[in-house]
Amino acid sequence: MVKNDTVIGRGWTQRGGRPHAEAMALEQAGKAARGATAYVTLEPCAHRSGRGPSCSSLLCEAGIGRLVCAVEDPDPRTAGTGFAKLRAAGIAVEHCPSQASRESLAGYLVRARFGRPHVTLKLAISLDGCIALADGQSRWITGETARAHVHSRRAMADAILVGGGTWRADKPRLDVRLPGIEGLSPRPVILTRKSAPDGVEVIDAPSQIAELEAVQYLYVEGGAGTAASFLAQDLVDRLELYRAPILIGSGKPAIGRLAIENLALTHGRWTLAERRQLGSDVFEAYSRTR
Ligand SMILES: NC(=O)c1ccc[n+]([C@@H]2O[C@H](COP(=O)([O-])OP(=O)(O)OC[C@H]3O[C@@H](n4cnc5c(N)ncnc54)[C@H](OP(=O)(O)O)[C@@H]3O)[C@@H](O)[C@H]2O)c1
After folding, report:
1. Residue 252 bridge partners (DSSP)
2. For the segment 41-64, what is each residue's pLDDT rounded down to a tens digit?
């Protein structure tokens, strides 16, 4: 919230979804909000919840002069009516679409569109596309810097998933072991049709991720069968590859069978989003083009 070139209030939506950013910023700004400009990532909500008035009502009551917003809310209870309500109250509304803002809301937008968490598939691969030796050895393909980066990515997820094969072969800890953020370890989940190990959540089909409670970001760490299952069902939004400068030859291919019959249909599905060197390895992130 800005007035006379001075920030008079800041806010961000709190864990659990409330309070919303606007309510926090308005509380800090107090009466100074009258005539101010509110800069928001997501369209202010237009629906009243059991936890108080809508953000568009709060902004109208506070008498702000202008709203600048990057992303229209796909929630059908708002979807443009937040903007309409503000305009009807005489507030200038500027909608400035931004890809960076959409990415910062990826979990929310994927949930709204597909009714499931945002899924990142991570694989550490050799130059020739293997994730393990033929006998299953995969520790370690990448170097320390890349592995530390993986831990920082784990910390941003609500849940982390591996297939039953990886669980049995590697007994991975699936936690965050970076000094200072160990407390951000995501919930471990296993994809298996077999019986569940104690204390770990299990799903027996990739489609069940719609049912994982309180998960907006899911981080899938393979292996090959699991990667193929998620990809075949078009459940991957972001592909993160850590490519090590090693050759394995006849090892385990990174991704299992995808049953692709027409090469032309494989093009245009992935867009390079990020690329950087991590020690001797290369990190590449691709977004699913939708
Ligand atoms: N370099 C890397 O980034 C990396 C990462 C992970 C793993 N790895 C390596 O990869 C190897 C394991 O890969 P993998 O392909 O054998 O195993 P995997 O993908 O970890 O697990 C395959 C298992 O996942 C379950 N599964 C997969 N698709 C399913 C579906 N649609 N519905 C229900 N369950 C499904 C089944 O579990 P059940 O058999 O339990 O029913 C299946 O046998 C290991 O050598 C490991 O070290 C490497």
Report:
1. 132
2. 999 999 876 678 999 999 999 999
Our answer to whether residue 182 is catalytic in this structure is: no
Q: Is the CB of 191 under 6 A from ligand 1?
A: yes
CA 253 and chain centroid, separation = 26
Selection from 92, 87, 82 nearest residue 35 by Cα:
92
Distance 93 CA to ligand 1 centre (A): 49
Cis bond upstream, residue 140 (ω within 30): yes
What span, in angstroms and rounded, lies between the C-alpha atoms of 176 and 260? 36
CA distance 221 to 226: 9
Q: Which atom of ligand 1 is nearest to the CA of 228?
A: 28
Distance CA 205, CA 71 (A): 32
Q: How far apart are the first and last CA of the chain?
A: 33
pLDDT computed for residue 48 by the predictor: 75
> Is the pTM here over 0.90, yes or no?
yes
H or E element that contains 228: helix 224-232
Take residue 39 and report the two structure tokens written for it: 């800069």
Q: What separation in Å is there between the alpha carbon of 272 and the centre of ligand 1? A: 26
The confidence score (pLDDT) of residue 16 equals 74
Q: Can you list the residues of the chain whose pLDDT is less than 50?
A: none
Tell me what percent of the chain is helix, strand and coil, each rounded to the nearest 5: 30, 25, 45
What pLDDT, on the 0 to 100 scale, is given for residue 17? 76
Question: What's the confidence (pLDDT) of residue 80?
Answer: 94
Show the tokens assigned to 100: 């960076």
Q: Is the CB of 169 under 6 A from ligand 1?
A: yes
Instruction: Write the DSSP string, 103-156.
Output: HHTHHHHHHHHHSS-EEEEEEEE-TTSEEE-TTS--TTSS-HHHHHHHHHHHTT
